[in-house]
Amino acid sequence: MLVISINARYGGELSRLRMMYEQKMAIAKEVQAPQRILIVGGSGAHYTVDAKLIQQKLGIPSINIATDEPIGLDVILPSVADVIKKGDM
């Protein structure tokens, strides 16, 4: 599970981020294909990488599982490890 350290001043931010994370992980688990493109990262990837466009252009299921969180890849990468399968890019 994703561990997020957020200052109390952000109020309900933790629940919003947890919900986003859980929704994206559920989608990644649902998409079954021999090859998928998974976009992993922080807010830069979350807001700027268009998985739908990538999928349309390449014909490979593409899922943006990046999240808008103030954390580093040392936390993000282990949190998505359980949805990565052989053949994923």
Give the end-to-end Cα distance, rounded to a whole number of Å: 22 Å
Largest sheet: 2 strands, parallel
Radius of gyration: 13 Å
Strand content: 5-15%
Instruction: Tell me the number of strands.
Output: 2
Order of helices and strands: HEHHEH
- Strands of the biggest beta sheet: in what spatial order? 1-2
Structural class: mainly alpha
Tally of helical segments:
4
**Helical fraction:** 40-55%
What is the overall pLDDT average?
Answer: 83
Shape: globular
Low-pLDDT segments, ≥5 res: 1-11
What features would you describe in this structure?
This protein is mainly alpha-helical and 89 residues long. Helix content is 45%, strand content 7%. It is built from four helices and two strands. It has a two-stranded parallel ribbon. The protein is globular and about 35 Å long. Residues 1-11 have low confidence and may be disordered.
Characteristic terms for this protein:
4 helices; disordered N terminus; 89 residues; globular; single chain; two-stranded parallel ribbon; mainly alpha
In short:
By secondary structure, the protein is mainly alpha-helical. It has helices spanning 13-30, 43-48, 51-58, 73-80, and strands at 37-39, 62-64.
